[in-house]
Specification:
Elements: E1 2-3, H1 8-11, H2 22-31, E2 35-39, H3 42-56, E3 60-63, H4 65-68, H5 73-79, E4 83-85, H6 88-94, E5 100-104, E6 107-109, E7 114-118, H7 122-129, E8 133-139, E9 143-144, H8 147-155, E10 158-160, E11 163-166, E12 171-172, E13 180-181, E14 188-194
Parallel strand pairs: 2-14, 3-4, 3-5, 5-8, 6-9, 8-14
Antiparallel strand pairs: 1-10, 6-7, 7-11, 12-13
Length: 201
């Protein structure tokens, strides 16, 4: 795998990214059973995450460090007696038995309601695929209109690599054509879009 850039922000076509595409993105994401929250600050995002953890009675969480640092979420979860794992080796050990996974994603796609995840690190992929509740955090201005624009953006970051398009919770109808949620991945996808820019790149 090979990255040619680490700066997703510079990879977006300037005329084809922005909050003007967010409403369509949110509508299409909700149409495929994702929950979408748009908040102004990282602190408000923390409040949403804490509410989800409380309401689901989660005890064990895996998360990337970048999603914890802007809001002080790490300290809040410690006061809640949550078992929190953020180190690479710990994520690999505990992701499949965690109740919640929390990670950042790079951008949303209005055409499909999908989010695009930079999955270059295997720990990132484990966090968003193994726990039954997947919470992903993104900047609300990082929404592109189409799949074509998404691929144009990705091509400026990766020569070869691993990205995921995540569209709603896991679903299948392989067995007797009965739709089942959460068999091959998370049964809940929560997208939290933050207006303030909390990431350097």
């Amino acid at each position: 795998m090979k990255k040619v850039s680490t700066n997703w922000k510079q990879a977006f076509p300037p005329e084809s990214v922005g909050t003007e595409f967010f409403e369509e993105f949110a509508m299409r994401a909700q149409n495929v059973a994702a929950k979408v929250f748009r908040v102004k600050t990282a602190v408000e995002a923390q409040s949403v995450i804490v509410d989800i953890i409380k309401s689901s009675e989660a005890k064990k969480v895996v998360a990337t460090n970048e999603v914890l640092s802007p809001s002080g979420l790490r300290d809040t979860l410690k006061t809640m007696n949550i078992d929190l794992y953020t180190e690479q080796s710990d994520i690999r050990t505990h992701a499949d038995t965690s109740d919640v996974g929390i990670a950042c994603v790079e951008f949303g796609i209005a055409e499909t309601g999908s989010v695009c995840e930079d999955g270059f690190a295997i720990e990132q992929r484990l966090i968003t695929t193994l726990p039954p509740i997947s919470i992903v955090v993104m900047n609300s201005a990082n929404v592109v209109p189409t799949i074509a624009t998404a691929f144009e953006t990705i091509s400026k970051v990766f020569d070869r690599g691993y990205v995921s398009f995540i569209t709603g919770p896991s679903r299948t109808s392989d067995i007797e054509r009965v739709l089942t949620i959460g068999v091959h991945g998370p049964s809940q996808l929560v997208i939290i879009a933050i207006d303030e820019d909390t990431r350097e790149v």
